[in-house]
């Protein structure tokens, strides 16, 4: 009997050991997304970025992942980066090239077990895989495409009863427009996780469709939560791709308050000039603050910078943003720059994000001249400061408007009474003749002109100087008509020119 009890105890101990060991081995997935980059032809470089739980042994052995390309083929994609991060996160990057069979829409996906044990809003999360997908649309009429890149890692934590904000700092290398929406987390075979619920909030849990700010106002219960959102790319109003990020949010019990960032929402700059502005972040609890920045201006060839980088201070950190812009930075869309302030509270470090939109506009065409000649007016202008333009718009009105564009104003507002009379699709042109399409302009009127340049993405420059001219009276113009009688036979008529 004693021996039997000893065997029974050892057996129970073994069962318990296995039960606890399995979650330790398998539960490790915290966040993931798939991005891609066009190489040539139908070949793309695809990257899976995963954030896992550092103490889990599963991190060490996942040197490859199964990826489904969406063209009825699969591969084992190798891991190229394995890096420990603070707060028990590990960065895992998997990357390889793939050539697709032709034009079409492809859903690239990866599924990997398992999520962390005890995710509050996913029932039985230890047995629920993490699944993410990205859509690649190969369409020659839309041009080649690179997916959005998520520059901010999903590794920030929050406190119960305190506002939580995450922003992925999404950057599109092609300058496409982006939109954001919440989606349900997915699991086995890409199906929505049964019983998944949006995290409980005292007021709201939402994502801003334009800025990408994921705002939780405010967490009610502490614990681990998983949420997902989709970022869609739009080119000329047509969807051209999308990326889903599934991420974990850790909410703790703490009395800490997040830092506060002082920053203007909008800046504009004429291409060729340098933009600079100061940014500061202060911590209400007098903790040390670290201030960093990400976004599109840091990804272009003429990269922006902040000095110092990172900026630290107690309780305030201050940095200065610098960007010397070029003509190739002209874009109809805004450059979003995201500033991140994180405190060093000993319990839970909290993070604040604030973004600013930067508009890079084209300089005005200089020295517009107008000279009357015959029944029309000849226009001429200097070489443009930015030669990457696609063409010119010519605007005309009768009489001067006195219009001078403001610092950030592009195009010609309709309120100025101007009408666009011509679109010149040859960037090499430096002159234009306006004779009202061969009909001739009305003499005796001061005709005034403005000219702008336009670009391939639809953006328009600031307006030129206003230039006016009237037709010369070098053709006979009747100035007087009279008669002295109603008698058609004997009366006289006076005509004067």
Cα radius of gyration in angstroms: 32 Å
- Portion of residues within helices: under 10%
Shape: elongated
Low-confidence stretches: 1-26
Mean pLDDT: 90
Question: Strand count, sense and closure of the main sheet?
Answer: 11 strands, mixed
- What is the rounded distance between the termini? 136 Å
Beta-strand content: over 45%
Q: What is the overall number of helices?
A: 2
Quickly give the structural class.
mainly beta
Count of β-strands: 34
Explain this structure.
The strands form eight sheets. Strands 1, 2, 3, 4, 5, 6, 7, 9, 12, 15 and 16 form an eleven-stranded mixed β-sheet that branches. The chain has a five-stranded mixed β-sheet with strand order 18-25-24-20-22, with no helix packed on it. It has helices spanning 2-26, 58-61, and strands at residues 29-40, 43-53, 64-68, 74-85, 89-99, 104-112, 130-138, 149-150, 157-159, 164-166, 170-171, 177-183, 201-207, 214-219, 223-235, 238-252, 260-262, 266-270, 274-282, 289-295, 305-307, 311-313, 316-324, 335-343, 351-361, 369-373, 376-380, 391-398, 419-424, 431-434, 447-454, 467-469, 480-483, 493-496. The longest helix has 25 residues, at 2-26. It is built from two helices and 34 strands. With 497 residues, the chain is mainly beta. Strand 24 (335-343) and strand 25 form a beta hairpin. The protein is 6% helix and 47% strand.
